[in-house]
């Protein structure tokens, strides 16, 4: 009996990996703004071709619900994502690897009424966007955040389907701002040269569909999938995923709306080199991270004044939800530099705003924080315990 039980255990161990991908699943996530492209894809042909290639059943789904598809990237809901950049970016952060994208990189622009002078003028305005998790909304959040604004700063956000219609809404005064691909803007502007203007531009974004495959699939399966998507048969309606955007570009898309602004009214944003110069002149460096992080490593001479954060990582946040009572230990008459864990860390941003509100005379925000300090190869103090009071 023991021998038979052992044989059963071995059989289960051998079969278990096969079950994890026996019914391989894929989803084609179609932006409502790219529905025409989506209609050209043949789900059935893709299932048949991939099934024949792998010798296993393959199930291909399609979805226009970007929010639902984004949830699936976090839960590992599909083995393969054929999706726009923001979905692929999320998948790459949750156990998937990139095959490639179908189109060259693109750029998006924030377009506003001709009377607007800058992105700051968008505050309390109206914005026209596709659905919440569309690539256009990701770009809008990123460009607004970079200027110190949030979607919460706007009077209204209208979610619709067709981005180019947003340009018409802006030109007719039905909306104040919208986001479109630069290519669509340039085509529209030729016929409407004075109806609107560009207020901000995004970075480079992987274009078309990106293909991401689950890393824990067997190596030979991943290799076959990568080869197939690089040159899919015409019956599938898929274009080759032949473009190789940098992983950093996907990371940048994933971080849009979560990174801190690049400016802060009332404070001076400084670099690592400028921090050195200010310290030499008597400025105080304030480390707003937690105790463990400070004790592990910190800028020499930095004082530990933690910002206990519970509010949203957004330019419109509820300061009363946070605890920065330690600010009272600092002298508001001295030049003060706040920092934390880099551009995606909001503690020093919020701490700087708190100091400004309390009347600190010279507030400096070291946005790059410890990552920038270390990348500049500047000295670091390590393993120093915080003095208990």
Mean pLDDT across the residues is 89
CATH superfamily of the largest domain: Periplasmic binding protein-like II
Q: pLDDT under 50 segments (min length 5)?
A: 1-21
Radius of gyration: 25 Å
- CATH class descriptor of the largest domain: Alpha Beta
What is the helix tally? 14
Can you give the helix content as a percent range?
Answer: 25-40%
Going by CATH, the architecture of the largest domain would be 3-Layer(aba) Sandwich
Seen as an oligomer or otherwise, the chain set is: single chain
Strand fraction band?
Answer: 15-25%
Strand order, sheet with most strands:
2-1-3-10-4
Structure description:
- The chain has 389 residues and is an alpha/beta fold.
- It has 3 domains: 2-104 and 206-255, D-Maltodextrin-Binding Protein, domain 2; 108-201, 3-Layer(aba) Sandwich (D-Maltodextrin-Binding Protein, domain 2); 268-382, Rhodanese-like domain (Oxidized Rhodanese, domain 1, 3-Layer(aba) Sandwich).
- The chain is 36% helix and 21% strand.
- It has helices at residues 2-22, 35-39, 43-54, 66-75, 85-92, 135-146, 163-171, 182-191, 219-230, 247-255, 272-280, 291-296, 347-357, 369-375; strands at residues 24-29, 58-63, 80-83, 96-106, 108-113, 126-129, 156-159, 177-181, 196-201, 205-214, 268-269, 284-287, 297-298, 303-304, 336-339, 363-366, 381-382.
- The protein has a 5-stranded mixed beta sheet, sandwiched between helices.
- Helix 4 packs parallel to helix 5 (85-92) and helix 5 packs across helix 10.
């Amino acid at each position: 009996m023991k021998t038979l039980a052992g044989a059963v255990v071995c059989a289960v161990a051998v079969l278990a990996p096969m079950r994890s991908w026996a019914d391989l699943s894929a989803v084609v996530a179609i932006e409502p703004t790219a529905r025409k492209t989506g209609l050209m894809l043949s789900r059935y042909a893709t299932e048949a071709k991939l099934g024949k290639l792998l010798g296993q059943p393959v199930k291909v789904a399609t979805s226009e619900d970007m929010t639902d598809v984004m949830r699936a990237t976090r839960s590992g809901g599909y083995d393969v994502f054929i999706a726009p950049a923001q979905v692929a970016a999320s998948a790459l952060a949750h156990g998937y690897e990139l095959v490639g994208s179908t189109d060259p990189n693109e750029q998006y622009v924030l377009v506003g009424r001709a009377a607007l002078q800058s992105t700051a003028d968008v505050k309390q305005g109206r914005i026209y966007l596709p659905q919440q998790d569309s690539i256009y909304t990701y770009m809008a959040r990123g460009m607004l955040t970079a200027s110190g604004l949030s979607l919460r700063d706007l009077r209204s956000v209208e979610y619709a389907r067709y981005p180019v219609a947003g340009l018409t809404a802006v030109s007719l005064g039905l909306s104040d701002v919208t986001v479109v691909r630069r290519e669509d803007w340039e085509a529209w502007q030729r016929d409407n040269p004075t109806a609107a203007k560009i207020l901000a531009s995004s970075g480079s974004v992987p274009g078309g569909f990106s293909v991401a495959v689950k890393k824990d699939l067997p190596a030979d399966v991943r290799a076959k999938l990568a080869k197939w998507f690089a040159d899919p048969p015409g019956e599938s309606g898929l274009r080759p995923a032949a473009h190789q955007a940098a992983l950093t570009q996907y990371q940048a898309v994933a971080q849009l709306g979560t990174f801190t602004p690049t400016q802060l009214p009332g404070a001076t944003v400084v670099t690592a080199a400028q921090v050195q110069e200010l310290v030499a002149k008597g400025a105080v460096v304030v480390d707003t991270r937690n105790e463990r992080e400070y004790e592990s490593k910190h800028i020499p001479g930095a004082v530990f004044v933690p910002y206990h954060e519970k509010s949203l990582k957004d330019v419109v946040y509820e300061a009363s939800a946070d605890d920065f009572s330690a600010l009272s230990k600092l002298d508001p008459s001295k030049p003060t530099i706040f920092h934390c864990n880099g551009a995606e860390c909001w503690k020093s941003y919020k701490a700087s705003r708190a100091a400004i509100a309390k009347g600190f005379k010279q507030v400096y925000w070291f946005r790059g924080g410890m990552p920038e300090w270390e990348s500049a190869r500047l000295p670091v103090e390590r393993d120093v315990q915080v003095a208990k009071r």
